[in-house]
Inverse folding.
């Protein structure tokens, strides 16, 4: 939803970081694959999960505004929740990326994480009410 505010180059970085993050726990779940496929098709990005060797420092140079950095973290945390839990390896990687992009404020990261969690709760609640479970 907020990724539409990013440039194409920024979206590519979000995808690359997300693919790299999905592999952090050495187990890319079906939900993570679906997220990455949806993101790549929505924004015309080549679907390629082989991002283990991405240079994070080089990649993040296109994240040149606070909004683009917050949206990136939001997307990465959203991906992390897709398999049902925000695991330790994923948390460590998200915090590392947050630090590299200058958003290593724990309070801000907690706000973004809460925003993502509430979004999932909102969707789940709606599905329950509509009987689409």
């Amino acid at each position: 939803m907020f990724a539409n505010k990013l440039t194409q180059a920024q979206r590519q970085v979000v995808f690359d970081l997300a693919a790299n993050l999905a592999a952090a726990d050495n187990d890319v779940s079906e939900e993570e694959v679906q997220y990455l496929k949806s993101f790549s098709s929505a924004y015309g990005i080549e679907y390629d999960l082989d991002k283990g060797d991405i240079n994070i420092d080089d990649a993040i140079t296109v994240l040149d505004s606070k909004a683009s950095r917050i949206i990136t973290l939001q997307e990465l945390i959203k991906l992390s929740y897709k398999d049902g839990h925000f695991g330790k390896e994923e948390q460590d990687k998200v915090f590392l990326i947050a630090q590299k992009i200058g958003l290593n404020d724990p309070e801000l990261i907690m706000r973004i994480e809460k925003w993502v969690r509430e979004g999932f709760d909102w969707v789940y609640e709606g599905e329950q009410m509509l009987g689409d479970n």
